[in-house]
Design goal:
About 40% of the residues lie in helices and about 10% in strands. The protein has eight helices and four strands, in the order ααβαααβαβαβα. The chain has a four-stranded antiparallel β-sheet with strand order 1-2-4-3, sandwiched between helices. The longest helix is centred in the C-terminal third of the chain and has 20 residues. It starts with 10 loop residues before the first helix and ends in a 6-residue tail after the last helix. The chain binds flavin mononucleotide (FMN). Flavin mononucleotide binds next to strand 3.
Length: about 230
């Protein structure tokens, strides 16, 4: 079990080493470290400095209560509660459709779960709602009046959280899956209905004995998404 703090990591190293971790050790990082990360992450740029991110952190009893409430909600509504936003467009086009498929295939491949094994996939999906075993989870909310500009600011904040976590020897997994149960999460945390739940995030020490954590999601080459105009 390693709880080493990796200090002095460059931004580049943190970016290159970060990846989504989907199995965590039980040991909890000190809350003060998490608070430091969340405070520093707020140095993220945001349009007109609105800082539209609203963060709720759960651990201990609060985390257990939330997980129990979600278990009941999943039993009631296996497909999720009423949507606050659509995670993907219904007609996800190429190359995005294939990329999503490859990610699912990569994760399930590591777990030895076959594509057609719906039951095993649903069982695994349930791990999302336990923060993949991470002892600390956060939720990122945004005022429902806000649009794409402010939502992109959330991404900048959350990326900072993930990189700062990496620097502190921690790992993370952002989780849009929680948005499927936005009503239960908001009720449990006392968040007003005027707020939209963007995503959750698992934070903790990676369990490197779990095969699922070996998956490294590929990236498109620069030329596929970047056009340079120079003449
Ligand atoms: C906003 C956001 C939401 C995500 N939601 C989930 C999720 O619900 N469950 C999950 O297992 N991974 C989730 N991911 C992780 C992505 O699948 C992952 O970032 C992507 O496959 C690239 O892999 P990497 O993070 O390991 O580089 C999410 C990532 C982001 C940025």
């Amino acid at each position: 079990m390693s709880t080493t703090q990796v200090r002095g990591m460059s931004v580049g190293e943190a970016i290159r080493q970060r990846r989504s971790i989907r199995a965590f050790q039980e040991v909890a990082p000190p809350l003060s470290v998490i608070e430091g990360i969340l405070a520093d992450a707020a140095r993220a740029a945001s349009g007109s400095n609105l800082q539209p991110w609203i963060i709720h952190v759960v651990l201990g009893e609060a985390r257990s209560r939330l997980i129990e409430a979600i278990d009941r909600a999943v039993e009631r509504s296996p497909g999720g509660e009423s949507e606050q936003y659509s995670i993907f467009p219904v007609d996800l086009r190429e190359p995005y459709f294939s990329r999503r498929g490859a990610t699912a295939a990569g994760v399930y491949g590591m777990l030895g779960v076959k594509r057609e094994d719906h039951e095993a996939r649903m069982l695994w999906r349930g791990n999302n709602f336990r923060f993949f075993g991470a002892p600390i989870g956060l939720f990122c909310f945004v005022d429902s009046a806000f649009g794409p500009g402010q939502w992109s600011d959330l991404g900048m904040y959350l990326q900072n959280v993930m990189l700062l976590a990496k620097e502190a020897g921690l790992d993370t997994c952002a989780q849009e899956a929680w948005s499927l149960y936005n009503q239960t999460v908001s009720t449990q945390l006392g968040v007003a209905p005027s707020m939209t739940l963007f995503c959750g995030m698992a934070i903790g020490y990676a369990d490197h004995n779990q095969a699922v954590n070996e998956f490294v999601a590929p990236r498109a080459n620069l030329a596929e998404f970047c056009t340079i105009h120079s003449a």
